[in-house]
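For reference, the entry.
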Amino acid sequence: MMKLLLEGVATFLMVFWSCVAALMQEMHHGLTFPTVCLVVALTVAFVLGWMGPAHLNPAVTLTFAAFRYFPWRKLPLYVATQIGASVLACLSVNAIMRPHDDNFYGTVPRPPEAGARLPFLLELLASAVLMIVISTVATSNQSKAVVGIAIGATVGTLGLVIGPVSGGSMNPARSLGPAIVFGRYTSIWIYVVAPVAGMLLGALFNKTVRQSDAIVGFLCGGRGASSRVVVVGRSVTGAPGTN
């Protein structure tokens, strides 16, 4: 129960400050887009560095479950908590800042008439890169602060790159919260399907590369015989190719 509460609080903080920054840019033009990305990066780094391990993202939770790092039976509760925390964060933003109906701080393709193909591809590729970083640092022996900074910097950088086209979500919870609160579901499927597919691909890539390294080390007579094969969120010591 404590871990679930931590997940909810962490997701709330991430979505709240992300939406506040986006709304400040939308309503008052007080922040530039790079500054919004910086706020998101610092928020993620702070939440992970201060509060410790949290998924913050249904696509991350689903990927961890698919690769047997996270129990499937807990998946519905975690996803419901993440989306619920996102909705609560957006309701809090609206109560504090009182945006107009046209001040939508969700994620939509930009411009809306540009179509779905490019935003989908960008969200998918960015999500894959993000999962590679997450799965790499999560299996390292780095401190919580270093892990938080690495993931936060990745989120901010990827958002800066793809944000002008797709909004830079990479997180179904970040997109679903504003969509539910405002009742606007334009192209919402992009921000659900692309992050999930991208993170699964990123995790598969990471697993394949790590196992390939272990096999090469073993065949070359190095340390492969006792290699440490790192899979998403977990490590297995043993023969190459061990799952």
